[in-house]
Amino acid sequence: MASKKTTLLLLKAFLPSLFFELLIVEATTNVNSIDADLNIKGWGCMEGEKKALLEFKHGLIDPSGRLSFWVDADCCKWRGVDCNNQTGNVVKLDLRYFGLGGEISDSLLHLKHLNYLDLSFNYFQGIPIPNFLESFERLRYCNLSNAEFGGMIPPHLGNLSHLRYLDLNGGGYQMRVSNLNWLSSLPFLKYLDLGTVDLSKVTSNWTQAVNMLPSLLELHLSECELNDFPHYSDLNPFVNLTSLLVLDLSYNDFNTTLPGWLFNITTLRDLYLNDATIGGSIPHVNLQSLPNLVTLDLSSNDIGSEGIELVNGLSICCNNSLEELYLGYNYWLSGQLPDSLGNFDNLRYLDLSYSSFNGPLPNSIQHLTKLECLNMSENSISGPIPTWIGNFSRMNRLDLSFNLMNGTIPESMGQLRELTELSLDGNSWEGVLSEIHFINLTKLEYFSLHLSPQKQSFRFHVTPEWIPPFSLKYIDISNCHVSPKFPDWLRTPKRLEKIVLKNVGISDTIPKWLWNLDIKWLDLSRNQLYGKLPDSLSFSQAALFVDLSFNRLGGRLPCSFNVTWLVLGNNLFSGPIPLNIGDSSRLQVLDLSGNLLNGSIPLSMSKLKGLKLIDLSNNHLCGKIPKNWNDLHQLDTIDLSKNKLSGAIPSWVCSISNVDLLKLNDNNLTGELSSSLQNCTWLYSLDFGNNRFSGEIPKWIGERMSSLGQLRLRGNMLTGDIPKQLCSLSQLHILDLALNNLSGSIPQCLSNLTALTYVIFLGTQLNEPFISYSDHMELVVKGQDTKFESILPIVNLIDLSCNNLWGEISKGITDLSTLGTLNLSRNQLTGNIPQKIGAMQGLETLDLSCNRLSGPIPPSMPLITSLNHLNLSHNLLSGPIPTTNQFSTFNDPSIYEANLGLCGLPLSTNCSTPNDQNHRNYQDKEEDEDGRYMTWFFMSMGLGFPVGFWVVCGSLALNKSWRLAYFQFVDETRDKIYVFTVVNKAHLKRKIERIRVHG
């Protein structure tokens, strides 16, 4: 009985492929009972057809010269041409992968017996499919896939009524259809592929059109912009497709649940619905209707825990047929792995990666003895690797990376004789990985053990004399201890292309034999490597990536290197940058940061046309920034910070429009912020802090740099107001303008900074070697200079401290609910603290010190439960200090010092009731001020009298001429006053008498 089942399974797998081989034979030959031989009869190809082919060749572009041999007399012997052995007519034209372009001549119409046409994988650069193809009435096989045709697919293809095979899968240029009605004229069609063709205009009736193809065996509609997946209850819209074996609807946007009718296609063998926005509940259908299912791909959808229900159901009906199950990249698919997985007796590929499964690996998986690939990466699988893992004698790929697994790695792993790829990254392994774990892994090519930097107790321990049984192509061991000596066993693999030994405790020089390997990727960063590099850093092949950063390598930089990415940052290299560095024309990334380099930046760098990233920060470079980098059009990341560069910003900086990160901070740059910078429309991070820039902050920063997320201009000599245009920067989450001479009020529109109103989550930090630059920024947080790197994207900060800003704090600023740090200290701000400040639930640091703020501490402020650093000192605040929530932890009196109206703990001033205490505080404050004024008044009187007396009288007593002149002046003044008084008195008396007489 078992042998019969095996025979049936083999037939199911073999018959479809056998069918297509027969289909091709049928399309190219016409077998009859007459044994006709072309050579015997002496027939060659038809002269008219030969001329047609030569004319066809004349219209083509043939850069590879594949058609250069179309010169012989007999065209039946030309490459890509087959003729009928009986008649000599051309019946097959197969130009697949010829690399052709140009035009397709209608001279092909002379090939009236053509039944096989393959122009796939060529480069016709968007020309439409020729209309004359409809005239090939005998055509049975037509493959135009990936040939870069474009435009509208001619509906007249429906005239090819004998067609069995049609593949129009696009390639580079968009093809589209206005309708699919022409498919109904192809009743014998068995294979249809319209992948990447735009079917958006027929998305509502595509099922009806396909249902008119009763002979169809394979249907491929991948990436066709379909968005309608009809639900007809249990009614199958493909009721006529009684032989359908393969259905591919992947990479569409259905945004729906799985329709029940899919499970009624009893002949279905392969079902591809990956990346089709399928989600929701699994329909309650009879899964036993899929007894022949071999491949099921539902990866990259929105399937949740209901996926486990599907697995359980399939394990009953398809336990003997299913060979490939792909459910990866369904992030909502959670729960423990079902035991029913062990029921799929013939399962070869199981991919549950990038989901949310938890718990240990179920023991039932050990029954999948035919398993060749197991991918459980990026889940929350816990526990150790079971010892039965060594029983998978056919396993060639095992990926358990980035889970929560722990324990020791079982020695039985060394029994996986067919294993070619092994990934154990991102777990919490314990113990040792030794030679016995690799004893029988003779086919291993890819090995990755990239652990977390915090988990370094695990050791990779082999003897110095160890000779590996395998020939690796790729090895990645990171953040675990290997050896203080450079591993000599790496000399053994002859095909090694990639070496990653990152943070593995090597304290040694780099051996000379390493530079002779044919490696394309070398990462030895974060070790204690020392010594010098060779003068020429050249490999036998041009290396793609070399990272030797964070070591103790010293001496001069190599004079030449044939690499694409060169990362030598944070070492001890000294001296100037080589003047001929521009000769390394393959360079795309150059990181020399954190060394002891001096001198100027070489002018030859202008020849690095492919340069995308340059980081020369934290060195001792001097002079001006070169002015001749105008042709570096690929440059998008520029970091020249923390050097001794001087002068102004050259105009080329923003002539490179795709720059998204520009850091020139901590130099001696001067001048105003040039208007040429406004061309940096894609800029995300701009850091000019701690230079000597002057002038006003340009308005165009807010008008032109709409992508700006980080703006740091602190520590300059900028003046003027803060432009209101900055409020339009919707992505801005870091605004640092501290330590300038800015004036005016804080813009009321800061509430428009929408990036400070929602939460950003950091993505999973994977081992991504291409990311050689780690964005970083130094900010003042909690009163301390702090360098932010990996978490910088989620740091939300506004720092306007140490300026001359005045006016009240904008009430709208309280709408910035996710702002983490707000520093307005050391300005001239007045008024009250906004009453709704408690709405700023993300606030962790608040510094309003050294202003002239008045009034009470708002009652809503204790509602900011995330607040852990507060400074309200040196203001005019009054009233009681809150004692609830976070305020109960603020026990340092300096937080509130020099606010004479405040009372309560941690200050020594007690409060009785809020009103009395406020009145008493104001009264005490007025009395204290009056007391100070009276004290100064009496002190002035006490000092003023003796000083005044002795200054005047002492001078007269000591100088006789002064004394005589003084008393003479007094006598004369007295006489004048006497005369003036007597005269005016007499005048007034006469006036009174005159009034009385006339009265």
General description of the model:
Helix 7 (914-958) packs across helix 8 (960-998). The model is unreliable at 1-42, 764-770 and 914-930 (pLDDT under 50). The strands form 8 sheets. The chain has a 32-stranded mixed sheet. It has a 15-stranded parallel sheet with strand order 31-34-37-39-41-43-45-47-49-51-55-57-59-61-62, with helices on one face. The chain has 999 residues and is of the alpha/beta class. The protein has 8 helices and 62 strands.
Helical content (DSSP H or I, runs of 4+): 10-25%
Structural class: alpha/beta
What is the helix tally?
8
Total strand count, please?
A: 62
| Rg, Å, rounded | 42 Å
Poorly predicted parts: 1-42, 764-770, 914-930
The general outline is elongated
* Strand percent estimate: 15-25%
* pLDDT averaged residue by residue: 87
Terminal Cα span: 155 Å
- Major β-sheet annotation: 32 strands, mixed
Short description:
This protein has 999 residues and is an alpha/beta fold.
Give a topology summary.
Layout: H1 2-28, H2 38-41, H3 47-58, E1 60-61, E2 81-83, E3 90-94, E4 101-102, E5 116-118, E6 141-143, E7 151-152, E8 165-167, E9 175-176, E10 191-193, H4 206-210, E11 218-220, E12 246-248, E13 270-272, E14 295-297, H5 306-317, E15 324-326, E16 334-336, E17 349-351, E18 356-359, E19 373-375, E20 380-383, E21 397-399, E22 404-407, E23 421-423, E24 428-429, E25 432-433, E26 446-450, E27 459-460, E28 474-478, E29 498-502, E30 521-523, E31 530-532, E32 536-537, E33 543-547, E34 552-555, E35 560-561, E36 563-567, E37 572-576, E38 589-591, E39 596-599, E40 613-615, E41 620-624, E42 637-639, E43 644-647, E44 661-663, E45 668-672, E46 685-687, E47 692-696, H6 700-704, E48 710-712, E49 717-720, E50 734-736, E51 741-744, E52 777-781, E53 784-788, E54 797-799, E55 804-807, E56 821-823, E57 828-831, E58 845-847, E59 852-855, E60 869-871, E61 876-880, E62 901-903, H7 914-958, H8 960-998
Parallel strand pairs: 3-5, 5-6, 6-8, 7-9, 8-10, 10-11, 11-12, 12-13, 13-14, 14-15, 15-17, 16-18, 17-19, 18-20, 19-21, 20-22, 21-23, 22-24, 23-26, 25-27, 26-28, 28-29, 29-30, 30-33, 31-34, 32-35, 33-36, 34-37, 36-38, 37-39, 38-40, 39-41, 40-42, 41-43, 42-44, 43-45, 44-46, 45-47, 46-48, 47-49, ...
Antiparallel strand pairs: 1-4, 2-3, 52-53
Helix pairs in contact: 7-8
